[in-house]
Design brief:
By secondary structure, the protein is mainly alpha-helical. The protein folds into two domains: 1-49, no CATH class; 51-110, no CATH class. The chain has three helices and two strands. A two-stranded antiparallel ribbon has the order 1-2. The radius of gyration is 17 Å and the shape is elongated. It starts with 5 loop residues before the first helix and ends in a 35-residue tail after the last helix.
């Protein structure tokens, strides 16, 4: 692992749209950079078209965070309930801010 030159490896796998080919997780300095670099590998050139999912705890899947652009699909499912719509905001470092705050305290809820 220490002998791998990661920068060209990452560039090659992203250019070929095959991030799984590396066989080890790719790491980026921020969530923003990760999204910007990975989204084109699935044909998403505009980040507004990327769908996001955030699982806070895999042992408790009753509450998950999903991007607002999934709302039309969610509304088609009678077994799903929308608690609140919040933005997936980035902090000053470009990292996603967790949507898992108590519902009554959601600053970005609308």
């Amino acid at each position: 692992m220490n002998r791998i030159d990661w920068e060209p490896t990452i560039i090659n796998c992203l250019t070929a749209n095959t991030p799984a080919a590396i066989r080890t997780p790719i790491h980026f300095p921020s969530d923003r950079e990760c999204l910007e670099r990975i989204a084109p590998t699935v044909g998403k050139l505009d980040l507004a078209n990327v769908t996001y999912g955030w699982i806070h705890n895999t042992m408790e899947l009753a509450r998950v965070g999903l991007s607002a652009n999934l709302l039309p699909e969610i509304e088609k499912r009678p077994d799903l309930e929308v608690e609140a719509v919040v933005d997936f905001d980035l902090d000053q470092n470009g990292d996603l801010i967790s949507p898992f705050v108590p519902v009554g305290e959601m600053a970005g809820a609308h």
